[in-house]
Amino acid sequence: MDRGANEYSDLFYHSVQVLNNYTDDVSEENFLEQYFQENDVPDRDFISTVLFDCVRHSTLLRTVMEIFYSTDGINVRRSEQNMYKVISYIIFFQLDTVGLKLLRGFINTVQLHRMYQFLQFLLNDDRLMAVREECLKLYDKEYFDEKIYRVIKSHLPHLKSVLLDLTDIVEGRSAPRQIQPPTKTKPFKITSPKHRAVPVPQIIPKMERIKPAPKTTYEPSRERIELEKVREENHRKAIEKLEHTRTLKYGFMQTEKSHKTHEKLSKIVEDREKNLQFDIFRANPPPKPQVNKIPVKLNVASVLKESQLYRRHEDEVRRRLQEYEFGARDAQEFLTWQTDILNLFFSYMRKKDYDSDLLELERKRLEGKLSYEEAILAKQRLQDENKRMADEMKEKTREIIDDYVKEKVKDEKRMKQLIEEVIDGRENAKLAQQKLQQYKKDFVKQYKEELKDMMKQALEDAEVEMRQRFELIQQIRAMESVPVDRWKPVDLTTIAGHGVLDEMSIAELRERLELVKDEREKERELKRDQIIKEKQDKEKQITDTVQYIVKFRNELTTAAAV
User: Fold this and answer.
1) Least C-beta-crowded within 10 Å: which of 365, 502, 521, 531?
2) pLDDT at position 176 over 80
3) pLDDT of residue 172
4) What is the per-residue DSSP string for 423-462?
């Protein structure tokens, strides 16, 4: 960065220098304090604000720089990016506060063609949209549009005027360019329409007067009046008859039946009696069911099941008798006692849990207090440790610098010695070169002689090998021409001779097969006898079980009869 001679040069220089020297290892406050002690800064508050905000919005500024260096700033040095970051920060965040005067002062501090190239990129609509799309991935849309994008849009005409001034200076124009005011809209001059002529009213024709309806239209006729009178008279007579009927006695309802009616009734009764049948055959009642007297043929499963049922019944009766002998009693008292004991135990455990919870809360409170105190002590220890490590780093750095200086001196001495050796070696180079050439000639001559001897020996060895192969082939052909007797007699008593374990002859194999057949036949006979015996035992067991069931049934029948 070139430092100009205006009043803003020092301020801009320190703004960029702070960003160049700052690292994430040290906090901003400590770094600024150290920087202010080492340098004379005109406006410390502004420098602090620039550093804090640039660190806070480092992602946004880095995005702008990446887009700039990938599009318009390909030929711009990367080492100057902090300078462009400061300009971007002022345009995005501080333009409402500091104004255009400070921005112009900062721009005039730098070489104009660099700043002209950067402002061309930053004030281009397409580039602004690209920056906006990338920044929306990092910020909320409402925040970015309200806090950043709106400020740029509101100051865009002024920023473009700054860019035009830079363009004039870069292109060598002496007269300032006049900025035309923005076009103002005017309303259109539209001809007002003519007023319509008032139409002449039409004459409404008068209608003839209609005669009124006659009075007889809404009055009842004479026939209707007479019918109403007759209806009322009939209604009056009916009411009088009803009243007269109510005054009479009810004797007229108790009339006797006539002789003809009695005859018809008697005839109907006779016809009904003829249809009755009292001497028909009556069926015998159904026989009563006989319990446990019907012979039922039981299969094996039902017999075993019923036997198991009766045996279980006997075991249950036997178990009850044994319990009564041993003094069995009701368990209600024991259950009541057990319930009381459990209630006491549960109440004791609840109280114990409550006490343990209180102790646990108190322990946690004390642990929290101890952890807070330990955190304070740990923070103090960490600060002391950091201070100690910083001192050690300074000491190590000082030692490294001393070692580097010593090593540098040694390297210089070594280089001087090497130069002297090279000068001495150049004088003996010609003699060494002549000796080397003579050595190469002798080596080539000896190599050619050895190669010639080796080739001669290889040819002799090849001839001997070919002669041996030819003799071997003749011997093989002579052996193949002799006929071979391949017939072999078959002897069933001899083995094949394959060297397998348990190898036997065919005769022995046949004999063993016969023995195996006899053994299997014996096993089959034994198994058949065993099956017959098991079947007989099972039939005997079933018979005994059936007898036991019959006996038990008879006992149950006798007990039921008693």
Assistant:
1) 502
2) no
3) 66
4) HHHHHTHHHHHHHHHHHHHHHHHHHHHHHHHHHHHHHHHH
Higher pLDDT, 234 or 27: 234
Specify whether the CB–CB gap between 53 and 93 falls below 8 A: yes
- Sign for the CA dihedral angle at 267, 268, 269, 271 comes to positive
Angle 241-247-248 (CA atoms, 0-180°, nearest 5)? 95
Distances (CA, A) of 287 to 283, 290, 450, 541: 12, 9, 138, 37
Separation CA 179–CA 465 (nearest Å): 107
459: left (phi over 0), alpha (psi -120 to 50) or beta: alpha
Tokens of 126: 């397409």
Confidence band (pLDDT; 50, 70, 90) for 517?
very high
Residues 76, 71: Cα–Cα separation, whole Å: 11
- DSSP character string of 268-295: HHHHHHHT---SPPPPPPPPPPPTT-S-
Q: For the chain, how far is it from start to end, CA to CA, in angstroms?
A: 131
Specify whether the backbone of 503 is left (phi greater than 0), alpha (psi in -120 to 50) or beta: beta
CB-based burial of residue 49 (10 Å sphere; 0-12 exposed, 13-18 middle, 19+ buried)?
A: middle
Q: Which of 463, 465, 461 is nearest to 473 (CA)?
A: 465
Residue written as tokens 């079933």?
542
Give residue-wise pLDDT tens across range 431-446: 767 777 787 788 778 8
**DSSP symbol at 57:** T
Radius of gyration of the chain (CA): 67
Integer Cα distance of 251 and 84 in angstroms: 134
How does pLDDT run across 315-365, given as a tens digit for each residue? 888 887 777 677 655 556 677 888 888 888 888 888 888 888 888 888 888
Contact 64, 124 (CB under 8 A): no
Contact between residue 155 and residue 123 where contact means Cβ atoms under 8 Å apart:
no
% of the chain surpassing 70 pLDDT? 86
Whether the CB-CB separation of 136 and 144 falls below 8 Å is answered with yes
d(C-alpha 537, C-alpha 435), whole Å: 121
> Is 188 within 8 Å of 145 (Cβ atoms)?
no
DSSP count for the chain of H helices, then E strands: 17, 0
Report how far residue 64's alpha carbon sits from residue 533's, in angstroms, rounded to the nearest whole number. Answer: 105
Residue 405 neighbours by CB under 8 Å, 6+ apart: none
A 10 A CB-CB count for 64 gives 26
Residue 94's closest CA among 54, 43, 39, 37? 54
Entry field: residues in the chain: 562
Cβ-count burial 347-359 (b if 16+ within 10 Å, e if not): eeeeeeeeeeeee
pTM of the model: 0.33
